[in-house]
From TrEMBL:
SMART domains: SANT (SM00717)
GO MF annotation terms: DNA-binding transcription factor activity, RNA polymerase II-specific; RNA polymerase II cis-regulatory region sequence-specific DNA binding
Record SUPFAM superfamilies: Homeodomain-like
Any GO CC annotation of this UniProt entry: nucleus
Name of the protein this chain belongs to: 7456_t:CDS:1
Residue ranges annotated for the HTH myb-type domain, each copy included: 1-57, 59-108
Myb-like domain boundaries: 2-53, 54-104
Naturally occurring in which organism (per UniProt): Ambispora gerdemannii
Entry-linked InterPro entries: Homeodomain-like_sf, Myb_dom, MYB_TF, SANT/Myb
Coiled coil: none
């Protein structure tokens, strides 16, 4: 069966409906999917809300203080982005993951772990 769900950019009308249904159904994305006549699936709905429309999300650049906290929590919470986001109100798990991916120290190559024998022998 052909999937009739909409793909691609969201229209202003879809955004308006999503805001309305969030007020009505909170974060029950399955109910919202039905209310939107299954034109978008629950994953699309959640992602649109969390990444673009939720007024609680702060879309400004991550501060140095937040960045330091992300780097520490990434180690202590083993890069569990959703759990880390609980410590940074207004920041989504995806924002945190993207920040970490851009700022993490590069992995040491196997060559970096070996002593340079030329240097040692001279």
């Amino acid at each position: 069966m052909h999937d009739l769900r909409t793909k691609g950019p969201w229209s202003d009308d879809e955004d308006r409906l999503l805001r309305k249904f969030i007020k009505e159904y909170n974060s029950d994305y399955k109910k919202i999917e039905g209310a939107m006549n299954y034109k978008r699936d629950s994953k699309q709905i959640r992602e649109r809300w969390v990444r673009h429309l939720d007024p609680k999300i702060d879309h400004s650049p991550i501060t140095e203080e937040e960045g330091a906290q992300i780097m520490l929590l990434a180690v202590s919470l083993k890069r569990q982005w959703t759990r880390i986001a609980e410590h940074l109100p207004g920041r989504s798990d995806r924002m945190i993951k993207n920040y970490y991916s851009q700022k993490k120290p590069p992995k040491a190559s196997p060559k970096d772990n070996k002593m340079d024998l030329k240097f040692v022998m001279n």
